[in-house]
Structures are given as C-alpha cells and as structure tokens.
Amino acid sequence: xxxxxxxxxxxxxxxxxxxxxxxxxxxxxxxxxxxxxxxxxxxxxxxxxxxxxxxxxxxxxxxxxxxxxxxxxxxxxxxxxxxxxxxxxxxxxxxxxxxxxxxxxxxxxxxxxxxxxxxxxxxxxxxxxxxxxxxxxxxxxxxxxxxxxxxxxxxxxxxxxxxxxxxxxxxxxx
Length: 174
Ligand code: SF4
Ligand code: SF4
Known about the structure:
Layout: H1 14-18, H2 23-28, H3 35-40, E1 43-46, H4 56-60, E2 66-67, E3 77-78, H5 89-92, E4 98-104, E5 107-114, E6 125-129, E7 135-145, E8 154-161, E9 170-171
Antiparallel strand pairs: 1-4, 2-3, 4-5, 5-8, 6-7, 6-9, 7-8
This protein binds iron/sulfur cluster (2 copies).
C-alpha cells in the first residue's frame, strides 16, 4: 500500500526510538494547531499519541473538553470548542504532554509544566528547547504559578520569537 504523503519517514519516528515524538509524528496525529488557530486564541496542545492507561487530563478538565473514555488506553480527544484555555490540565498530566501555545504578532507564548528545581522567576532569560531537549531559541519567563493544588508541578509561561512556535516545548534547566 502506498504511504500517505503526511506519514513521518523513518528518521521522524522518534517516539519509539528517542522517547519523544517528532513534530512530523504529532502533525500526522492531528494534534498540532495551525498558525491561524494559534493567532486567533490560546490553543491547548495535547501531545499524547501513545496508547497508555492514563486519564488525568480528562478528569481535571472542568469543561469536559478532553475525553479519554473507555478503554482508558484511548488517546485523549480534545474538543477545542469547549476549551477555555484555563490550563488546569497542564499540571494534571503525569506525562508532561500538555502545553498551551499562542501567537501575538512576532512573539509566541507557551505555558508548560515544570518539575525541576530551581523554579524560574518572572523576567528570567532562558533557553527554549524542543521535544528532545535541544536548544531552539532564547525566551523570557513572563509568569510562574505553583499553587498547592498543582502538587509541586509549576506552570511556567514564557515568550519567544514566533517563528519557533511549532518546535518549542519547554526550557532548559536553570
Ligand atoms: S485548558 Fe482547561 S478547558 Fe482546556 S482542556 Fe485543559 S482543563 Fe480543559
Ligand atoms: S493525562 Fe497526559 S499522558 Fe495521560 S492520557 Fe492525558 S495527555 Fe496523555
């Protein structure tokens, strides 16, 4: 059977070989928002494309925007119409697979989970990284929240140049 033109080639299949999905794998799974969507409103990105028994994203969402259902190994399905970008699913995900991204002009913003110490502070200049931890670009921390309900998973918001919005997923440890 001919391969779909959107199917990742062997070098892009990093989920199994390196432990993190490539952008091509995520695009093939349909979980990467378009630039137009990112410019229109903050978009939750659920980069969970492996069938594992897990559903805290579903149970943490007050809007019913994320559904795993039964069996619990189903991949989460996002209903963007219901999502308010509240961010509660970010610290709830044990796989650190949920972030929220947006575009404003030439700047991108990302809200991501952070479980290392030290926790960054507002105004810190940081290095943004891709899904394999490779440096992508410089960024600036614009907020950090770490309420008790997060059970020690802080949520960091950072901004960086818009051109890197698809690649950036987190920041390098301080
Ligand atoms: S950001 Fe909030 S509303 Fe959107 S899926 Fe996550 S928990 Fe639900
Ligand atoms: S909580 Fe995270 S790892 Fe678990 S199913 Fe949801 S997105 Fe995937």
